[in-house]
Amino acid sequence: MTVPFQKYHGTGNDFLIIDADEYVPDRGALAERECDRETGVGADGVLFLALEEGFNPPRVVMTLVQPDGSTAPMCGNGARCAAEWAMDRTGSDSVMIDTQAGTLRADRTDDGAITVEMSTPVFDPEKVPVDADEPVFGEEIEGLEVTVVNTGVPHAVAFVDDVDEVDLEAVAPPVRHADVFPRGTNVTVASPDGDGAFRQRTFERGVEGETDSCGTGAVAIAVIARRLGLTDADPVVVRPPGGELRVSFNERGFSTLTGPVEFEFDGEVAIESPVEP
Questions:
Q1: Residue 50: beta bridge partners?
Q2: Confidence tier at 244 by pLDDT (50, 70, 90)
Q3: What is the pLDDT of residue 250?
Q4: Which end of the chain is flanked by fewer CB atoms within 10 Å, N or C?
Q5: What is residue 91's three-state secondary structure?
Q6: Domain with CATH 3.10.310.10 in the chain
């Protein structure tokens, strides 16, 4: 048995998208197998999307299953890819996206990029969550000086002189698995780009490695940089390895994430039938 998928990416953060109406008995197993870049299709996650009828603007329910088989409550670039998928199917330039981190609005910009309104950044230790009595700003955790925020998922962000000089595969895992993070954390490093922008590298929880882009990480950089007085720009330009993202702050006080989304190709993946008792 097989199910169809579409492959999309947002600044290099790539996803297989499967219609949630397709029968997939074990989503975690499919994601583990097909996200593998050597033996599977290769992706940073699998988005299961369901269009809901009767809404204006159209509404889509997004579930992200990561390469380790876990489910993530939110993904900025994933949400932008989900928006593009839904817009392609409805002809609308605006959609609402239901995620485990809340309902988000996404719009197509005049230049064809996708803007998604992100969930409210949270520094409250209990809600990140991180084991601390007060918000964590510039504190050392497992050898890395980080500020901690939840932008839909938790991020530990370190500002460094040059992201290219950081051995992320060495310094990130101890922070990602630190005891103070009961649910783990993403680990992001950022450095000034010389023109008011920031360069970004992120080690993602659930992917268990560095990705070409991380939307929630870009938002975390922008929010923290403004909080620490490192920038007063709006938008804040963030440049992960896969391209350029723009983080703005709208009249409702929410952050927005804007960047390109590209459709790559259609395909089919095998699903395993459930084992008979």
A1: 61
A2: very high
A3: 76
A4: C
A5: coil
A6: 2-118+260-270, 139-251
Q: Are strands 198-204 and 236-239 parallel, antiparallel or unpaired?
A: parallel
First to last CA, the chain: 19
Superfamily of domain 2-118+260-270: Diaminopimelate Epimerase; Chain A, domain 1 (3.10.310.10)
Residues 96, 86: Cα–Cα separation, whole Å: 9
| pTM across the whole model | 0.94
Quote the tokens at residue 78: 């994933």
76-90 and 215-227 are packed helices; what angle lies between their axes, rounded to 10 degrees?
A: 120
Reported in sequence order, the residue ranges of 77-197 that DSSP labels E, i.e. its strands, are 94-99, 102-108, 114-117, 139-141, 144-150, 154-159, 186-192
Tell me: pLDDT of 273 over 70.
Answer: no
139-251 folds as: Diaminopimelate Epimerase; Chain A, domain 1 (3.10.310)
Q: Which residues are known to be catalytic?
A: 75, 214
pLDDT for residue 174 = 98
Write the DSSP assignment of 197-238 as a string of letters: -EEEEEEETTTTEEES--HHHHHHHHHHHHHTTS---SSEEE
pLDDT of 274 strictly over 70: no
> Which tokens belong to 56?
């204006």
